[in-house]
Amino acid sequence: MLMVFFFFSILSFGQSLHLKGKVMDVTNKEPIGYATVAAVGSTTAASTDDDGNFILKVNPNFSKIRISFVGYESQDVSISSETYQELTIYLVPEEHTIETVAVTAPRRAKYSNKNNPAVELIRKVIAHKDENRIASYEYAEYRQYEKVSLGLSNLSEKFKNRKVFKNYQFLFEKEDVETGSSTRGYTLPAFIEERLSQVYTRKKPNTTKQLILAEQRAQFDPKFVDNDGLSAYFNKLYQDIDIYESNIELVTNQFLSPIAGSSPTFYRFYITDTIKTETPYLVELSFFPRNKADLLFQGKLYITLDGKYAVKRADLSVSDDINLNFVRDLDVKLDFEQDSNNRYYLRTSSLGLDFSLTDKGTGIKGNRTVTFDDFKTGIAQPDSIYAGPSVVKVVQESDTTSDETYWATHRPIALKPNEQNIYRNIDTLQLIPSFQRFMDISALILSGYKQAGPIEIGPVNTFYSFNPVEGFRLRLGGRTTDRLSKRFYAEAYTAYGFKDEKWKYFLSGTYALNNKSVYTFPQHYLRASIMRDTKIPGQNLDFVQEDNFLLSFKRGENERYLYNDIYRVEYKREFESNFSYVIGLSKWRQQPAGILTYQMLDDYGNNTVFNELNTTELSVGLRYAPHEEFYQGKLYRTPIFNKYPIFYLNYVAGLKDVLGGEYNYHNFTLGADKRFYFSQLGYADVNVEGNYILGDHIPFPFLNIHRANQTYAYQLRSYNLMNFLEFVSDHSVSANIQYYMNGFLLNKIPLIKKLKWREVFSVKAIYGGLRDENNPAYTNNVFDFQKNEDQEPITYGFDNKPYVEASVGLTNIFKFIRVDYVKRLNYLDQPDVPKHGIRVRVKFDF
């Protein structure tokens, strides 16, 4: 998002465009009289005559016209820059619309799949798609060129002339006519990247290998922006489009392909033209979503009439009413070409996206173009070509492939003049002091850290917090950056509680053993750390600091804390295959704080209180995440969900009499995560996990204290209606299901669908047990469970039933808020437990 202030295109001026055309009903080809034809974004308009004909003269700044008539869905049509153009436009009758009383309105036929030649044609396309896709070749190889360019779009003259941009006038350029409005005058440069690759595919086993031969991009100052992470993020948004896939992933969502097996259920198809100027002849097949708010395309397919029923061309867009966030416009163009065997392969692919917070405001407009050359089939390559990762960067940093001389001879399509300027302008921009200040402030707002030479101070949301043990807590910390060292990374903080009057601290140092950043894939590092700080037993947070100010607000009793002293050494090795392991050794001293107590009762009722507990732990963690990708930041990385499962196995051994350790135990955890995609029915994130602890007379702090949440934020991995320290076990199994329907139900409800809310459902269950030798109810050799002020137990093992909670919620409220109603389904008679509640989560998503 730091890139939101740079991009460009070009605006063409010329004489007026003369448009002539006809508007007809798509169902019966009857002309539609008195329909309105208008240039999008202007007051220029015309009406059709009784025969559906119209003539319209528009300014060349416009690229779209909109055709509308009562009882029909409005249709936006792109126009080119040619001076004279003839168009034939088909309107689709609206479903469930009251007939207009007008003698000129043609009779509208009800759409049906039965006896529909368009549906019969698309079923033939579906039946032949496996033999037409590239995966049907035994072997194929080709040269691939990719270009991604983005810019800040829809900028007015007033915006351009602001005082803050006085020194940046060289960056602004006139916007491309494709924007379609005379008020959208300028763009601002942001990003461009080019990549040249050699790609090999084989059918058995199904494998694709991409060798990156050359790449270059506009580089920002690495102290503010991680250029590799920026590139990975944009390439995730602008993905490859395979029309033959049943589900097409785009802007982190899945769209049902118009030639998926189930497409006739969700799309309406119409034969709108036959093209005899090409060989073989083509049928123009128009398609529209049955529900305009669903994640579906609309557009045209051009199908060959040679018995192969292949897609020759495809033009895809989306409805304005689609339940998709921040995307103002989406345009996909695919062109296929015949190879030497008269089969079709993808020749060019273009994906245009216009992002914006509002329909008319400033946005980010970008385009990804992919060209495929030198297509060959039937050449068997040795197995060594396909070995290793699916994508390999052959180009090295020392190569000269970033020179313009190289690209001028190897680039299949020349850059536009404005695209050539991006490389130079971004370099110039970063020399301007005011831009440096802007980037510094933006980095503070977005990352929470303030640049200070080779270190960063932060995160700012942890500077102040509070809790019942420490009271008012102040914290100050920071971390090093690659300006100090690329291979060494340090992080530290100190904090002070004004109630307990104690200092806390943390210090860690990490050294990369592969000459890369410690966060860059594949990781290979050695880390050492020391910490003295407070912690709530049973609270485990992902990607969030525990002393985040917003987490200071908690429900129920919240006074059982620990003072932890932890010394840890850790070694991590990650492989290109996405398998990794971590080996660690830690010494852990914990002291109860607040009203937490560690005590034992002997057979005579005598009470022994323990002021501290010591353990030494050896840990081994194994993880396998096939085909995993990341959003890579400068000092962090976030995994990207895909369809492949992630498996993990963790083992922790307590070592008695080693470095002061007091207990022997063996803790095993085996689990898996997977996202299941259900096409138009959304997707589900599923986690299953099992845990078993070997050992006798183990005190509850070393057992499995199940993850509870007493904040008002909805936490994905925790039990949101479970109290801290409520359940412990030495063996358990659990399941966590988060099901996102992406608005499939709400999109069908009138009025409600305009809010673009989305449904979410969840179920979390855990069932476990506690062996007698670890249960204080059967032995005096372990710590007593916790009790409240009335001496009622508030810590338990499981009975003969699992703990279950479920929720139903709405996401996408104001595009970023999730609200859940959570209900606890059992163990309702235990003291101070909530039976239900409302929880909120911030979630930005497309």
Structural features, described:
- This protein is mainly beta.
- It folds into 4 domains: 17-91, Immunoglobulin-like, CATH 2.60.40.1120; 117-429, no CATH class; 448-663, no CATH class; 701-845, no CATH class.
- Helices cover 9% and strands 43% of the residues.
- The protein has 8 helices and 46 strands.
- The protein has an 18-stranded antiparallel beta sheet that branches. Strands 9, 10, 11, 12, 15, 16, 17, 18, 19, 20, 21 and 22 form a 12-stranded mixed beta sheet that branches. Strands 4-1-8-6 form a 4-stranded mixed beta sheet, with no helix packed on it.
- The longest helix is centred in the N-terminal third of the chain and has 16 residues, at 117-132.
SS element count, helices: 8
Assembly form of the protein: single chain
Strand proportion: 35-45%
Count of folded domains: 4
Looking at the structure, what is the overall shape?
globular
Helix content: under 10%
Number of strands: 46
